[in-house]
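Our collaborator T.R. sent over the components below with a one-line note: 'Predict the complex.' Nothing else. No constraints on interfaces, no templates requested, no preferences about which chain binds where. So this is a plain run: every listed entity goes in together, and whatever single assembly comes back becomes the starting point for the next discussion.
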Amino acid sequence: MAQKQATGVAQPNDCAVDERDIPEAAENCLVGMTFVFTGVLPTLSREKCKEIVQNYGGKVTTAPSGKTTCIVLGQDAGPSKIEKIIKLGTKTIDEDGFIQLLESMPANGGSGEAAQKAREKKELEMRLIEEEVQREIIQEKAEKAAKAEREAQAFKAAKAAELARALELASTQTTASKLWTSKYAPKSFMQFSGNKTAVERLRNWLKNWDANQKSGFLRLGPDGSGKFRAVIMHGPPGIGKTTAAHLAAKEAGYDVIESNASDTRSKGLLADKVSGILANTSISGFFASEGKAVDKTKKKICVIMDEVDGMSSGDRGGVGQMAALCKTTNVPIILICNERRLPKMKPFDNVAFDITFRRLDVNQARARMMTIAIKEGIKIPPNVLDNLIMATGSDLRQVINMLSTFARTEKNMDFDQSKDMGKAWEKNVILKPFDIASKLLAGSTFSASSRMTLNDKIELYFHDHAFAPLMIQENYLSTAPARRDMCHLSLVEHAADSLSESDLVDRMIHGSEQRWSLMPFHAVMSAVRPSSFVAGGMTGRMNFNAWLGQNSKAGKLMRLLQELQSHARLKISGDRHEVRLNYLPTWTSRLTQPLIEDGQEGIANVVEIMDEYFLTREDWDSIMELGVGPTSGEVAIKAISSTVKSAFTRKYNAASHPVPFMKSATTGAFSGGKLASKDVPDLDDVIEDDVDTPNDDEKDIIDDEDDITKDKYIKMGKKPATKKAPAKKKSTVSKAKAKKQ
Amino acid sequence: MSLWVDKHRPRYLENVDYHIELSQRLKSLTTSDFPHILVYGPSGAGKKTRVVATLKELFGPAVEKIKIDSRVFTTPSNKKLEFTIVSSIYHMEITPSDMGSFDRVVIQDLLKEVAQTQQVDLQAKQKFKVVVINEADSLTRDAQAALRRTMEKYSPNLRLILLANTTSNIIAPIKSRTLLIRVAAPTNDEISTVLAAVSKRERVPLPSNEADYQTVFNNIAFASNRNLRKALLILEAMYAQNGSLNTSTPIPPPDWEIVITKLAADIASDRSVRRIVQARAILYELISHCIPPNIILKTLSFSLLTNVQPLVKPDIIDLAATYDHRLRLGSKSIYHLEAFVAKVMTAIEKKS
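Returned assembly:
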């Protein structure tokens, strides 16, 4: 094994190069076998191995279990896995063994017991599918016959050539021009694949709806759905939510009124239209169009609101209104959406019964897809179909669309074709911050044999360019670096330096320069380069970045400090940093020491200092909160007994205190770009006589005279300044009144 | 009962204790046409004290009758921001950096408003009003640009006094329009003299021995880092805690200094990645509790110097300079502080 040495440092996961020639093996030779790949194989990547096994009909799982046939062991396998392997006593082989196995296995898995079983199972499955196809074909024929008969009768009855032509046209259109997705949409729950419990819940809820209504939606019922007038179904696209809703409505005898994102669903429209429906019965229970039987069961109405998460800015208040309707409706409402967890879907909490639809397992989806393929005459082996289903993330609608596209040109699909197709139709998944960080920090990403290019790595950053750097910064210290050329500390030092430089780039991008073309460079400096040093297995849990939280905490404390400084400003000459750095320690001790040492007697002393600096009781708390370390106020507070503390609060609140100014929070009116809030200063230091009122105030009032009615704050009047606060207030108001008149 | 630092603040230019020459110059400025001035110097040197005394010289005692106003500004993006203004009838004091990146709005609206109004009080000593701008060195470029034309255009009605720690962040056009006045930090001797005077007025029990008497003040002056405000606050804290002063009275370091000194000792003794993780938590704590990152870096570097081998010291100074620069250029200070810690650790590791 010359290559074995060449690959150098081994990494977990898929870092090996696929430079080895894979021998051509017999078809389906791995049928019935389950493989687990662990550690790093010398020449094959994990992806490639998986591909090979699936191509030859085998199965690959991630963790060993009792069902595992064979474990392919590479270097640096996880200790927990090895432990489990020993416990289970499963056969282990290395890469060479795997290749040998591949070469030696006869077609269809030979005569082994497992292979036999798998074959039998597969045959059974195929037989069931064949039966299903036959049944459907028969059913369709019968339907067609019935329809033809009906049409013939109608034709006879109408005796109108025109109508007949129209009908003929319509009947030919129905099958030929239908999309496969609607052609093969399940016509009963028999044909519905997967999500059995979810469907069952929906059916039960709808079935019991009338009974629940009679009891006033008070009883919960066995599954807890009895209290709800509405349900909300949510799950990824293409797994049959809408179909299930329609089927359930049909089965329970409801006429469906559907509304989806193509309709405007604003608050007003919903209130008008939907609430009108909610108290009605369907006409189709009484009448039918010419030539159709009246379906007497269809007297009831059911509303299906599709794509509720598509209610966007155009549908103002739509979600809220919908939720309100759900509380009072007299007909069942079925809501359908993809993302239930979005904040805008919050109004539906406790209003609608949650039914979760999950992605289908390959096994659940295979039968139905196979049926369709056979009916359309496409030859497709099960493992190829599986691959398609997996590639789309079990989006059945997409698989059907792919099949229908494929059937246009060819009738046989092999594994490679399905792979290409899957790749071409691949949905662009946006990775979440956690996934980005774990991908970048994984040792395999930067190993010598990694197949990721620099561009691929940069691409990872662009999945979420705001969070990726923060996540890397948060977690780069908690890896066990795979690189061995430097010690851990040096690697971290390089990474830290790169992060520091990236911040300068970030400033150029988001600062006043707005040089967005530097984004790829920022990607390299903030995410790729730091990771290149420290990439390796995580030693701890991946943490969410602390920077955001710390930043908002800093912002909050800075506001407190600013408030503090603005109160004390009349006495203090320093800026807020000076207040923090030099005043705060002295204040902390001066404002707590008397309370600790003298107890209640110290309160007066503390209040005196506070009044001197115009500090409020809240500022006292801020001072304590702003401290750090062992001499901070928060430590000092613990030494103050709770009785003294509450006495302090009481005593402070009982007396009145000088305030340097009044806040303008109450002024609501605005004019132009600026607003001078004219609050009454409650201060002894203010100007003695009215005559000296600053003339800029005068000007403001004149400016605002035009719309004096709008500007509420004018009532507060300009700043007169007398010594006593209450008297001053009175005079202000009266003056303002006089001005108005 | 104010703290001593505020209680004994000189109110007249004649009473200011040191930089006598500077006081005389300021006084002579008030007699002739008063220019725009830019006062700069480290904190605790007495910039504001001198400015207030100068204003008093200019306008008389009315400038001491000040009030605090709060105003609401709307930014171009319709955000409402509250802004506080300290003003008397003759002057107005603003801190535009309170508004962060919206300081331009304040400069544009507020200054123009003041500047376009003429003094109507015939008894006023001066025809102009003075606007004092605090923290002028943290004004954004935009705000400084907004200042330049205003300073010339409205000079009959308005004089500006800019207060800054350094002139390096102030754009050249502003510097050329102002008279630069440097207020240097007081020397340790000057601080000791002030401390002695204050303690005498407050009747602080002091050692009778002349040498000890001097040492007490010298120690405080040294601990204050030539910051008179800090020195006075330390003096008072020492007095409040002990009731008297002598050479053995401990000088209480401020809360944040204790934390940083401990951090420095930890970094120097244990150089590992685990320690960096712990350092990050401490640094976050300091930053979020409003300790300016450059102060953290400075204090950390100087206390590291006392903890390491002489060979490493130049490296640490070099690194501190590099990362101080980066702190200025960048926006996420934790990145730079953390990188500094990591770099220092490897530097110590290499030389040991």
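Summary for T.R.: Strands of chain B lie at 37-40, 67-74, 80-87, 91-94, 129-133, 158-164, 179-182.
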